[in-house]
Every structure is written in structure tokens, then in C-alpha cells.
Amino acid sequence: MEGASAGGAGKEAAVEETAAMLPAVEKAMHVLVAIDDSEESFNALQWVLDKILKPKSAAETAAVSTAAAGEHESKVITIVHVVEPLPRYAFPGGYVVESSSKAQEQNAARILSRAFDMCRDTSVKAKTLILEGDPKDRICRAVEEMNVNLLVIGSRGLGQIKRAFLGSVSDYCSHHAKCPVLVVKPPAKKKSP
Description:
By secondary structure, the chain is α/β, with parallel strands linked by helices.
């Protein structure tokens, strides 16, 4: 099962134990999932939808449908995509900057649309948000400004050398965010016989 690091039959127990340690999904629980164009971030979104925010009964599913109609929101997920600003000095002509910005906006819209569809398919109310700036800083600021109860972020599994040079968004957020942070690792690759 995804998200668990234990092997064999212990995987399911490890996932249940991890979910039990997370804050209880109560009225107006606000989860923020940081999304980029990596499969790891979409895996993190799917993991939280399946393991934490998934309706457990027909009554809860009906309550989610009622919430979607606007009466009561018990589970809110905000999907955030951070766009890094384009360096202005790198592009001498205004046209190049304009078309690059437009391409960035279109990419962000595509990413958020895919994430929103995943939430809609599981009957979870979702909001999308595009922010501009350094992803590490903007995600942590969004958590604080929006009073988020849980930040969910995917791990790309960078090695020690890449992490030292590039930095890790998940590592930074786990140390600086003002709420619990769930870092979802990529699913284990299946070995072929």
C-alpha cells in the first residue's frame, strides 16, 4: 500500500497507525496540499484523499454532498501551486516575458485542474490557489495565513547530494510550517520477477 514504509502485511497496519496519529477529521478541518507538476505531488494528493479525507460511510458521503451544496463544510482541502517568478533580466524583449508568463499560467491551470478533478471524483470539496514566489516560503506563509490544520506535500526522494544543492521543499516545510506536515513518499517500486 502507498505511503507506508513497512514491508509485507505490516504495511496496512502502518498506514492505519499513521492515519490515526494525524489530527482527527473534524468540522471545518482545513488541509492544504502543495502541488507541482510531479507525479509525487499527485500521489500525495491521492494518498490524503484515500487515507484521510475519504468518506467512511454512506451517511458521511451524504454529508459531503450537502457540504458541496453549501450548507456545512466538514472537510476542506486547498490545493496550492506555487509559480516561481520569471527573472526579468534573462529576457530582453517584453514579448518573450509575456509568452513565458502565459505558458506558466496555462501550466498552473492544467496542474490545478487535474488536482481539482481528483478531489471531485472522491466528493471532497476543494479550493485551488496559485501563488507566486519561492515555493518553500510561499507554502509556509499560506499555511499560516489560511489557518491550515495539516500540510500535505509529496517527497521526490532526492538523494543527499541533490538535496544539499537544490534544497528540499518538503524538508523546509516540515521544519518551518506552523502546522503538522505530512510528507508522502512515492509508492515503492514493484520488483519484476
